[in-house]
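ARCHIVE CARD
SHELF: 3
SLOT: left
DATA:
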Amino acid sequence: MKHTLLLLSTLLLWNCAGEKAPGTPEAPPPLYTTYRSAASATERPRVILVSGDEEYRSEEALPQLAQILSQRHGFDCTVLFAQHPEQPGIINPNYVYHIPGLEQLEAADLLVLFTRFRELPDEQMGYFKAYLEAGKPVIGLRTATHAFRFRDTLSPWSHWGNYYQGEKEAWHGGFGQLVLGTNWHSHHGHHKHQSTRGIIPREAAKHPVLNGIQSGEIWGPTDVYGLSGPLDSTATPLLYGQVTDNTRSYDESDVMYGMREDQWAIASTNPASGRFYNPNQPMMPVAWLKPYQLPGGQAGEAFACTMGASTDMLDEEFRRLLVNAVFYLTGQPVPEASNVDTIGDYQPTAFQFHDDAYWQERQLRVPASMP
């Protein structure tokens, strides 16, 4: 009896000290991050945010957006990350074959997608298919126009790929063209040298997704994307991208590459193109709403925005645009001027590609969930 009491006392002290008793198995690392708040008692819809791009730091942008949505507006949000199956819990945007947690799309009310050229297994792609066939709403950011690529032409998912031009005519251009309205086409502005200023067309000025935003207020250091063709006639352009020159010196070491919102000039050429066209004649749409419908599925609605890098998220009006779109697509009244202040010490890194060695050395872990 005395020995039993001594053992129980030892285990109690060990647990109180925050240590594990000998032989206690390691807790598995978190594979995704869920953000909830007391305000979610109002039964806000559930938002699943899927990151997975090699360049624009979606693994930084989407957790910040999720925290704003949960803590400022009461949405339940879960962020998913690209990972190698042999290193669970370690974020690796370069690994295009695995994003754990996609089964949560079964209970999702909104998908926010920010992936690039993913080549996911059948089971994981099946969750996207079921979600979209149900006609549920989608927000696609930046590289979501080329969210998938299946190099194996025999893959049952090859038609979801960015370059698909096969016999399934409705899928020409892949997921991006069918659901968002364009697949990957080009850099319309000079990458890392020219930025984007959001111009609101007169006919969209009173659209609720633009509540609290004036024309010209949205700015980001990412360049304007070119579209693969004119927007579908059913789409509603909300924002055009004015290509702006940097009037400061280019700085490779700067998180904005030397660009600043208050130091710019309207661009009249893209010197990187070799064709020296005027990228503002005409301006490209950078945000729009579009109905979509997969063959055999129900009709749904998508919001596409070709901005979205983690450094774009430093802009208050851009954050407001995304938050407004979440309210709108989930059928909630859009606030007149939503609170979109960042949560915590948000310090995004510059958009750029990194080699595999960078990610192995960094060992970036999936953030812990917040109750």
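SLOT: right
DATA:
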Amino acid sequence: MTSAKDGYCYSFPAVRGLQAGKPFYIATCPLSTIPKIFMFDEHEVPPELRAQRTLNKSRIPEMVRYLVENPKDYVFSALTVSVGSNVDFVEASQGEIPNLGTLRVPMDAQILINDGQHRRAAIEAALREKPELGHDNIPVLFFVDEGLERSQQMFADLNKYAVKPSPSLGALYDHRDESSVLARHLAQEVKPFKGFTEMEKSSISSKSGKLFTLSSLKQANRALLGKGAKEAYSEDEKALAMQYWQAVFAATPEWQMVLNKELSPYQLRQEYIHAHGVGLHALGALGCALITAQPDTWQETIKELRKVDWRKANPLWANRSMLHGKLSKASTNIALTTNALKQILSLPLSPEERALENQHIPNSEAFHG
């Protein structure tokens, strides 16, 4: 190992700390320096000789777009790196402020990224589109490397207890994604979602008093309005979503019974399809087809939902919402559930939807309504 005193160095304002008896350093680095200092070069090195996973390049464009589109309002968490060299730490003010000073890292030191290689790649690409981002800073957590084995263990330890937030919690806290904003608004203002939407978890326990998850409502709205993940919503579309779900509520006696305390949420989930994500998503997709086909009369047609027997025991849902006696929210099952609802409301199936019916629904179980 070389010493930072023996040659040219990078210098960073930093704070020194101790963890497991070993020093680490938290430094502030300009974004412009990140691609130059922290290299990530796989060169088809086998996994056993790497300290990181391979770069998933499909993740980069979305991260770049996030940086470029939100230059005044983005947040990137710290990079964690291992330095394959001795480093020097010069305390400020002759030690008057302990552990605050300047970290000096040799320019020829090997620096491995233990956590944050996708952020590093996104920063590099974003700087090509928006060079002024280079003046911003990002925190970097430096560890003094003790070899490949230690770096690999650090990667394993850093990711072992990382838990991705649930889709519902992500939707609850995401103020940029318009579909999340709309879902939150409906959950707070519209029956049957008001008071019956699980805002944090993406599954509902048997004892819960909730009916729907925020993530399911978000997906149902996208299906209703025919929107992709990043598309914007007009005020008219938001108003239409409110209007549609209110009309569905008025045509769904079981939902009304829950709100009137005549039926418990637990009973509804146990016995009925439309207390689950597959039913809600199918209702959203139904609304898209209905409003497109009948823009002026859909509110009258939606009343026909009262005819639907939503019980899981109804043979209509076999091989649609139900597979081997259990609910399935796979895209094919949502589409087949939507097909059944369309036929109940006398809406024609497209050739693709008809082909899906022929492929998955046995003749003896085909819809004849």
